[in-house]
Design a protein that fits this description.
alpha+beta, four-stranded antiparallel β-sheet, globular
Length: 368
């Protein structure tokens, strides 16, 4: 393995023996204390033990949520940037990359039995046949049976490789106390038998996953080290449950002519998530259908069947709920609130509020 890249750290032998620094440490601290040292050695991790990256202080029970991590900076010869690795809890590891290399890097995924969920914001991973494994905007799931290494090339020369990846093993699924009977493959095999096939596939919920990944990469400028590790741990769990939900057998409520197929359920849920995030300026139905990969007829019929509202009714409901919150909890003018929730004319907002709540915005604000 190229020692300039930190990869799966599920076993001690696979973690590179390159200098590491505590995640979030200031550069002067790095230079003065740990840049020339190896926290893995300092932590005294013995062969055969599960790896806890960085300081094991206050880790507690192995299943506890208590993120701790390390950062690996690229050497001057390799390029610029770094990889963050965080132990979130037993069976759940997180890696965040923001690194630009001087040349493509040949490396491989080790022969660990692990499931990886990766969101790639820029840069590419390419297999030995020249096929792109993941590229900008891709949300992928890769399963490794543990029977072989998987070589690939990391191409991040013209643009940095920005990626968020969570590494899952059976223990984290067990700690969530999921209803195993509702899971579908490959999570079912991992959960019930601790087995995984070798496979690679695209995930849905791209809008949600990309948003989470961007927040995680950008968090380095928003948080102190101790709060950032908790923030990243929480976001990693959010990615985990978002993906788990995609692999659960959904109970489809309808049995009529407009029955929603299992295949389209997750796409329609994703459409709802997009609308929840963009209700003030929502995409057209045609654009929404394109974003989630479904035709407009299926989207409209399925949305109404699953959520008992048309798409337009759902948008209005979101605007009303957000509008009421702003009316009751802020000093913003009614006109400003109207603009914020997507109305070009305050009079239209006032009319919609009166129709929905039976009172004017001013009456709601005054509690009358």
């Amino acid at each position: 393995m190229n020692k300039g890249i930190t990869k799966s750290s599920l076993s001690h032998k696979d973690f590179p023996s390159t200098p590491l620094v505590v995640t979030g440490a200031r550069l002067d601290q790095i230079r003065e204390t740990v840049f020339e040292k190896n926290p893995i050695e300092q932590a005294g991790v013995a062969p055969g033990q599960k790896l806890i990256v960085g300081s094991p202080r206050n880790i507690g029970a192995s299943s506890d949520f208590n993120p701790c991590g390390a950062r690996h900076y690229l050497s001057r010869d390799e390029g610029t940037g770094y990889w963050d690795m965080l132990y979130i809890m037993d069976g759940l590891l997180l890696s965040i990359a923001d690194a630009q290399y001087r040349r493509p890097i040949q490396t491989s995924w080790p022969d660990d039995k692990v499931l990886k969920v990766r969101v790639t914001l820029s840069g590419r991973m390419i297999d030995t046949q020249g096929n792109v494994i993941c590229g900008p905007g891709d949300c992928t799931m890769s399963c490794f049976s543990g029977q072989r290494e998987v070589p690939y090339r990391l191409d991040a020369v013209d643009e940095p490789f920005q990626s968020v990846c969570i590494h899952l093993s059976r223990s984290v699924l067990e700690s969530l106390h999921l209803d195993g009977s509702s899971l579908s493959e490959p999570l079912l095999s991992l959960y019930e038998r601790d087995e995984l096939p070798d496979l690679h596939q695209m995930l849905s919920a791209q809008h949600t996953l990309i948003g989470l990944a961007r927040d995680m990469v950008e968090s380095r400028d928003m948080f102190s080290a101790d709060t950032r590790r908790l923030y990243l741990g929480a976001k990693a769990l959010e990615i985990l449950v978002t993906v788990v939900e995609q692999f659960r057998r959904k109970t489809i409520p309808n049995t009529g002519a407009n029955r929603v197929s299992q295949r389209d359920v997750s796409r329609i849920y994703e459409a709802r998530r997009i609308l929840e995030a963009s209700y003030a300026a929502p995409p057209s139905i045609q654009e929404l259908a394109r974003l989630v990969g479904i035709n407009t007829t299926k989207l409209k019929l399925g949305f109404r069947e699953m959520f008992a509202n048309t798409i337009q009714e759902f948008i209005i409901l979101q605007r009303m709920e957000k509008g009421l919150m702003l009316i009751e909890n802020t000093d913003l003018s009614i006109s400003e609130i109207a603009y914020r929730v997507g109305y070009s004319y305050p009079a239209s907002f006032t009319q919609a509020i009166r129709k929905h709540y039976g009172k004017t915005p001013q009456a709601l604000r005054n509690g009358v």
